[in-house]
Design brief:
With about 325 residues, the chain is mainly α. Helix 3 runs antiparallel to helix 4 and helix 15 packs antiparallel against helix 16. The N and C termini lie far apart (about 55 Å).
């Protein structure tokens, strides 16, 4: 009887039902692929997540899934493919800022600031008060070597959103590049009033003091960074540079010893320590450090140069949605 029922059900179903069923089935499969992808991505299984999202998108071109795909591709350093996914997002919802913003950040990562600028102008054509578009425009302007335009865009951004720490930080960097140390300092203080433990702000504050030849203040700010995060490599190198400039070689040596203790693969620290050993006349220690740096560099190169993982959160900076 089983077989008979099977044929009966096969032929009695009206075309309408099968269409409905197929639709439901597709929706079910779509959800399974999409949310498997999300789970995989959260667990760090990026390659698998990408496959899931791609399967889901074969069933339905869905904005949110494209966003997930773009972020997973970015995590796996496939920036061109991620850019392509954001292009599809913009086609689906031209005025949705999430895809637009991700796209602009990817263009900046791909070193295409001129394209990023024109995308920012696209946003401003339909959202003239979008502070994030002005921020990203400022970022692109800085990269295209247009400091005057960048300053004007960042100032516009801050008029629209006066507590946007990232914009003060960026404007401070541009002001410093224009040797406007006083103004740069005012902006960096503003960053610290909004986010008191911002490492990047103390680092920049140190650089500003360095530029106006106040090494004690520069050092105090770099050390503030190291208090917040002993693993901060930029701060380590900047403090070391100051110590060597001042002939404080023992302290420099101690600093680099600590640095390679907590960061055994810190190539720059070995190279800088070698320089300190040279200055102290320790030839064999210097050559040992250079050898170590060389080995680490070769090893890093072999590991496919994926030393610095990309920060996907950068793509969502600004929280406008």
């Amino acid at each position: 009887t089983g077989m008979g029922n099977f044929f009966k059900s096969l032929f009695s179903a009206s075309p309408k039902d099968t269409e409905e069923e197929e639709k439901e089935n597709n929706q079910k499969n779509f959800d399974v692929f999409k949310y498997d992808g999300v789970r995989a991505q959260q667990m760090g299984q990026i390659a698998y997540a990408i496959k899931c999202y791609e399967q889901a998108l074969l069933i339905e071109e869905d904005y949110e899934t494209l966003g997930f795909l773009a972020s997973a591709l970015t995590q796996s350093h496939e920036l061109e493919k991620a850019l392509d996914a954001t292009g599809r997002m913009v086609v689906l919802e031209p005025q949705n800022l999430m895809g637009r913003t991700m796209r602009i950040n990817l263009l900046l990562l791909l070193d295409r600031p001129a394209d990023a600028l024109s995308e920012c102008n696209d946003i401003l054509s339909f959202a003239p008060d979008n502070y994030l578009a002005y921020f990203l425009k400022g970022k692109a302007g800085k990269l295209t070597g247009s400091p005057v335009e960048a300053l004007s865009d960042l100032t516009h951004c801050l008029e629209l959103k006066d507590d946007f720490a990232d914009a003060y930080l960026l404007r401070s960097e541009v002001l410093l590049s224009q040797e406007l140390a006083d103004k740069a300092l005012a902006d960096v203080e503003k960053v610290l009033s909004i986010t008191p433990e911002e490492e990047a702000a103390f680092l920049l504050k140190g650089k500003i003091f360095h530029s106006i030849e106040q090494p004690e203040k520069a050092e105090a700010n770099y050390r503030q960074v190291l208090d917040l995060n002993p693993f901060n490599r930029d701060a380590t190198l900047l403090v070391g540079e100051l110590l060597v400039d001042q002939g404080r070689l023992e302290e420099a040596l101690e600093l680099y010893n600590d640095a390679v203790d907590i960061n055994p693969d810190f190539i720059q620290a070995y190279l800088r320590r070698a320089e300190v050993h040279d200055l102290k006349g320790n030839a064999s220690e210097a050559s040992e450090d250079r050898q170590k740096a060389k080995e680490l560099a070769e090893k890093a190169h072999g590991a496919d140069e994926q030393s610095e993982p990309l920060n996907v959160n950068e793509l969502y900076k600004g929280g406008i949605y």
